[in-house]
Amino acid sequence: MTHFVSAEEERRVRANDREYNEKFQYASNCIMTSKYNIVTFLPVNLFEQFQEVANTYFLFLLILQLIPQISSLSWFTTIVPLALVLSITAVKDATDDYFRHKSDNQVNNRHLLIITLIIQVLSWMNVRVGDIIKLENNQFVAADLLLLSSSEPHGLCYIETAELDGETNMKVRQSVSVTSELGDQNNLASFDGEVVCEPPNNKLDRFCGTLYWRDKKYNLTNQNMLLRGCVLRNTEACYGLVIFAGPDTKLMQNSGRTKFKRTSIDRLMNTLVLWIFGFLVCMGVILAVGNAVWEREVGSLFQSYLPWDPPVDNFLFSAFLSFWSYVIILNTVVPISLYVSVEVIRLGHSYFINWDQQMFCSQCNTAAEARTTTLNEELGQVEYIFSDKTGTLTQNIMSFNKCSINGQTYGDLTRLFVLLSGEATDPLRLDFTPFNPLADQDFCFYDDTLLESVKVGDSHTHEFFRLLSLCHTVMSEEKSEGELVYKAQSPDEGALVTAARNFGFVFRSRTPGTITTTEMGRPVTYILLAILDFNNIRKRMSVIVRNPEGRIRLYCKGADTVLLERLHPCNQELMNITSDHLNEYAADGLRTLALAYRDVSEDEWETWSESHRCADKATNCRDDRLAAAYEEIEQDMMLLGATAIEDKLQEGVPETIAVLSLANIKIWVLTGDKQETAVNIGYSCKMLTDDMTEVFIISGHTVQSVRQELRSGHRSGQLHVRLSGVSVSLHLGIHTDKEHSGQFALVINGHSLAHALEADMETEFVSTACACKAVICCRVTPLQKAQVVELIKKHKKAVTLAIGDGANDVSMIKSAHIGVGISGQEGIQAVLASDYSFAQFRFLQRLLLVHGRWSYLRMCRFLCYFFYKNFAFTMVHFWFGFFCGFSAQTVYDQYFITLYNIVYTSLPVLAMGIFDQDVPDKRSLEYPKLYEPGQLNLLFNKREFFICIAQGIYTSVVLFFVPFAVLSDATQSTGVPLADYQTFAVTTATALVIVVSVQIALDTGFWTVINHVFVWGSLGSYFTIMFALHSQTLFRIFPNQFHFVGSAQSTLLQPVVWLTIALATAICIVPVLAFRFLKVDLKPQLSDTVRYTQLVRQKKRKPIGRSGRLGARGGSRRSGYAFAHQEGFGELITSGKNMRLSSLALATFASRHSSSWIDTLRRKKHTHTHTPPSDTSQIV
Amino acid sequence: MMASSYNAKEEDGHHSGASSHGGAGAVKSKKPDNTAFKQQRLPAWQPILTAGTVLPAFFVIGLIFIPIGIGLFVSSNNIKEFEIDYTGVGESSPCHSCAKNFSWNSTTPCLCSVDFTLEQPFESNVFMYYGLSNFYQNHRRYVKSRDDSQLNGDRSALTSPSKECEPYRTSEGLPIAPCGAIANSLFNDTLELYHIDANGTSNSIPLVKKGIAWWTDKHVKFRNPGGNGNLTVAFQGTNKPVNWRRPVYELDPSDSENNGFINEDFIVWMRTAALPTFRKLYRIIQKKPSSTPTLPSGKYVLNITYNYPVLSFDGRKRMILSTISWMGGKNPFLGIAYITVGSICFFLGVVLLIIHHKYDTRNNSADIPN
């Protein structure tokens, strides 16, 4: 992000006039996401690092140490760890930035054609605002462009905006009519219109501006804009004027800067570090007071042997200096390596997530990715999951699954299995190609009786599929013969038309007035008289066509509830059978549609078309009058049958949801879909079940109605609680929520949600929603998704996770504590905004229950031990203060102080923090309750912290006073006293290293080779390094640096010293051991029990009651036709405006190919080596 | 770290990924390696605290610690130790006048003698210590006030000692050798021991003054400048520490191996004590070749050349005689501590065993509640 044009109020862009545009200094199209270059790296990076409080603090300590009167440690004890920390961070930042540089360069150097008087090829980064550039089919749009003209009629062009908003369906953009006539490049080069428009902003669906050209004004809207990140489709070429470039583009404006997320452990850690600072200051003050007293009472008398340093002339000043000296010595209670170690551990956990084979999706060749390395342990604390529906829970693939034709049901696999009983083979997928060369290869159907019925020419079946091939608003594209691609507004329609296509009723092309199909290999053209388009109220659509014989027929498909009412009475019997089938389908979670037709006589058509025309032309209440007209003719229809479409859930979704809810995680579905769809999916993924007491549906449009609905839901919730004998109001918070949330579900609509999210109602909403087991919010806007997440964050203080795959989920992903992106079909916006990404919803259980749980456990154990070991280490100085005149004399050798945290004790605890496991991954999936400690934050909280600290202080007491008591009178076997300072230092240090090593050995629950190497290696390195530092060789070279020459061997050869160390170790460890044993023995945690059973191999595992409940069928019938996302192309088709695809197809049909099916077949034989790309993903 | 979430590489990557579905096989599988390390399936030992492991551990610790403690206690009790305070605080004490009248400037040494009786004979080698109390050799300013380069015989450090030695770095414009507060406060009382035998004659007991320092100190850490040649020449151009009566090269003029920086009394003093009450080895009384005890029981006289003032800061001076065993001098604490810890472990083991048997819940919960 280079710069923002500050306070740009409006933007003026003149085409082909760089000089003019340069006056405004608009951002160029060069994108810079990198932060440093070679020269600025060191200063900028250091500056950034010293903005971290911890680093500055250590710098401050370093400066303090340079004052000789204060310096109680030599300078290198601080600078070595600080330099280490700074350089590790610098290396990490440098690598990150290198990759950003690389990707920036790659994008900036993409080439495109630019038209400014001379036509030239330029790289993306050289494009300026006001340039006119040419885009070709399937190219990425390089900047935000005003569409000027395109190769297509009416200046139309088609774009796919998956990168931008996640929607995969194609969108139409149209240029302003005057510019669309400009056409060729020469005209464009002399185009000199001026655009005045809004300043750069991040609203994807809004643009407002004016084009001034040849003294005329033209209004510009979002319809005229091509945004960076879109891909041009089905358009040979188009030309656009660059309005926003580079960082000003809506894509970049939208990506913004990611909020830096911190985990709750992070926040706790920061609080604790502050507390420790407070503690440090307290100890400093105590010791300073001690120093004052000592200097006054003893030190002043001791002056003949030990005079004060020159600037010190009284005990108060001495005490002041000793305060700072002690701050330096005791600073190791907050070791600088804490933050780096935490980073390293998280990095390790992130790599484990990336490496996990069980979160790898082989179909899409995507491994899970931890995109941020800072949130891992929070994955183990999630309480609320907010999930998108489409593409997250579902695959967004509709498949034609079953149908009922004239009372006969087809596609029922259980029936097939019965037929095939005895054979273990799966039912064979039908091969349509021998029967129908136009069939779609990817279409799956297993029931061959339906195909037989088509083949034998059953008239009902034929009429059924004819309806499917005619009654829709799908557009087709036929690039080469037989290579049909359908573009549907709703995936349901695409699935139905594809089904018809495979059963021999191939929809080939349409014009505003005709529909051309190939029926059983025979081309037929129907005259399209009217499309009675779908809308949410009608829940059905019809077409009226005239067949080649001249008969007029109305075909209608729609929600069974509305369609069955409009049947001719003679259908009663058929209706009952079909109704049973519909119920069956709905119970399987399928989306159903009923199909019917009606013959329309010529007279009837004449009168109706007249009334229809009137309604169409009406200026007021046009929609109502049209609906009435439609209603009029959609009567007395004859039932054909019903279809059942499967909105395919992603693999393992119901199981995942079941496991997650067993882990006490609440799942909210937030979807932009309609209520019916959302509820349907809620049933099919078993979030909603029919044995729920009540599903509250809140869909009020006014504040009052929403409040009322919420309250009634609330009341019945409370009532139920009272009935079950517990008269606790649901207001009371989590505990009551948890116990009684089993029976209710809440479905709330977007417009109601808007009211519910208002300040005065939000608590009411939260309490009602949290009393429910499942919450589904439908028709919500991206902003509302974020608001819901924020609401829970605010009211529940719980860790939230948002999972989604589309651009509409970005806001929610960003505002939740953890954002997870599904790297599916809907572009990558969600993934880019997310913290974790993977390909399938079901990986979520592994991410949370395995990786998250482990991460949390490891981080907690790491922190506990880390604080413990540093308190044990540092507090010894405090006790020693009372015996050395509070002079800030250290107990240990300065090298030991330097190396303790970075060498002697760093690796074992890192190994534990990275590799530790309490129970294997399989068990944590098997017993989701194991997840609970994380949610309740049991493993590391203030209490646990104080326990660690207490243990550390206890250890320090033992480590100081045991050697004190033993050594003060002891002598070597040569009679030399052992109570000299160096022997004492070596003894205490050795005891400390051994005690903390034993402690880490106790804490480590999972001893891999690495743990062994690190623990034993650390001990070994301690002795090796100590002997080296105390060696004569080093002393001879630097006699002034290595005062401890000979101490190691002299000390460690003494049996008394080893006896002292053993004694200290026993006193430190035995109580811990006893305490832990009692805890495990008397109050075992679930993980202890699981671990124990694992150990004794008691394989009496209870099967979890998962499968039984999952098999339960939902009962209520859920109609499928409401699921179309929006109204179809109906209007566009009949207006003829948008007929480019089909007209193109028609043209190619007419001119180059004969439309006969035989010819098609013949041509296919010639070109059969060329396999048609089966691109069904475009349909769905 | 703040970072833009827009990443052009991924924009590209997605596109190529989408278009590559057709060309199967061209795409390299991104499937993570199936290694035990990456899949977190490394073979591991998973220790768990069970009654079967913890309780025996307690008993074992108890059973090991108690005998060791008893051994230590017994051998400590067999050690004979005699201690006498000769500071001269009380009016009646023989060194009272010396202690009171002392001044650094007095040229005539003050002498006093203390009589004492050993009740039991001291066998084997007897070690003679001087003990100081309330003397803060472990004070930070004191500890650092030395120059190890100088003491190691470094010529440049001899003439310009380290700044750490201030204010005992120079005197009268000349560098001090050895510099610093530690050297300046060298303990300079002289102790002599006489045995009064049955007929009242006092026999001087030979005190060995070598072999009292660490080997590394004597042979590595401390070296005279210019080897052990003429020390007077070597130390020319330096001044003695202000409190000293004699320059460093006259610490033991009789023995060139024990003079200058390598004088063992000096080395012993320079090895600072960890605590304000400490003892330092002064002399060794060698075992006699005959079977008679080194120090038979009876009357003794300690002759003190009282040079070292401690009363000003309420310090104490002691003389200690002690024999030694395999584990050093008298040390009752270690033995008692071992016995106590061992007993507690054993007791804990018993208590835990009872608790485990009474309240154990695990056997009933073989299946795990979910």
From TrEMBL, chain A:
Residues at which Mg(2+) binds: D388, T390, D805, D809
Binding of ATP, residues: D388, K389, T390, E493, F534, K557, R591, T671, G672, D673, R779, K785, N808, D809
Annotated active site: D388 (4-aspartylphosphate intermediate)
Pfam families in the cross-refs: Cation_ATPase, PhoLip_ATPase_C, PhoLip_ATPase_N
Membrane topology of this protein: Multi-pass membrane protein
Residue span, P-type ATPase C-terminal domain: 831-1084
Organism this protein belongs to: Sparus aurata
Encoding gene per record: atp8b2
Similarity annotation: Belongs to the cation transport ATPase (P-type) (TC 3.A.3) family. Type IV subfamily.
Record field: catalytic activity: ATP + H2O + phospholipidSide 1 = ADP + phosphate + phospholipidSide 2
Keyword Magnesium: yes
EC number: 7.6.2.1
Keywords from the named record: ATP-binding, Lipid transport, Magnesium, Membrane, Metal-binding, Nucleotide-binding, Translocase, Transmembrane, Transmembrane helix, Transport
Cofactor: Mg(2+)
Recorded GO CC terms: plasma membrane; trans-Golgi network
Protein name from the UniProt record: Phospholipid-transporting ATPase
Subcellular localization: Endomembrane system; Membrane
Regions that span the bilayer: 73-91, 272-294, 314-340, 862-883, 895-915, 945-966, 981-1002, 1014-1035, 1055-1078
CDD domains, per the entry: P-type_ATPase_APLT_Dnf-like
GO biological process: Golgi organization; phospholipid translocation
Residue ranges annotated for the P-type ATPase N-terminal domain, each copy included: 13-79
Main location: membrane
Automatic annotation (TrEMBL), chain B:
Protein location: Apical cell membrane; Cytoplasmic vesicle, Secretory vesicle membrane; Golgi apparatus; Membrane
Region feature (Disordered): 1-31, 146-166
Topology with respect to the bilayer: Multi-pass membrane protein
Residue intervals passing through the bilayer: 48-74, 333-355
Positions with biased composition (Polar residues): 150-162
Main localization, broad class: membrane
Record Pfam families: CDC50
GO biological process: phospholipid translocation
Superkingdom per UniProt: Eukaryota
Entry GO CC: apical plasma membrane; endoplasmic reticulum; Golgi apparatus; transport vesicle membrane
InterPro entries found in the cross-reference section: CDC50/LEM3_fam
UniProt KW keywords: Cell membrane, Cytoplasmic vesicle, Disulfide bond, Glycoprotein, Golgi apparatus, Lipid transport, Membrane, Transmembrane, Transmembrane helix, Transport
Homology family: Belongs to the CDC50/LEM3 family.
PANTHER family: CELL CYCLE CONTROL PROTEIN 50, CELL CYCLE CONTROL PROTEIN 50A
Protein name in UniProt: Cell cycle control protein
Organism: Sparus aurata (Gilthead sea bream)
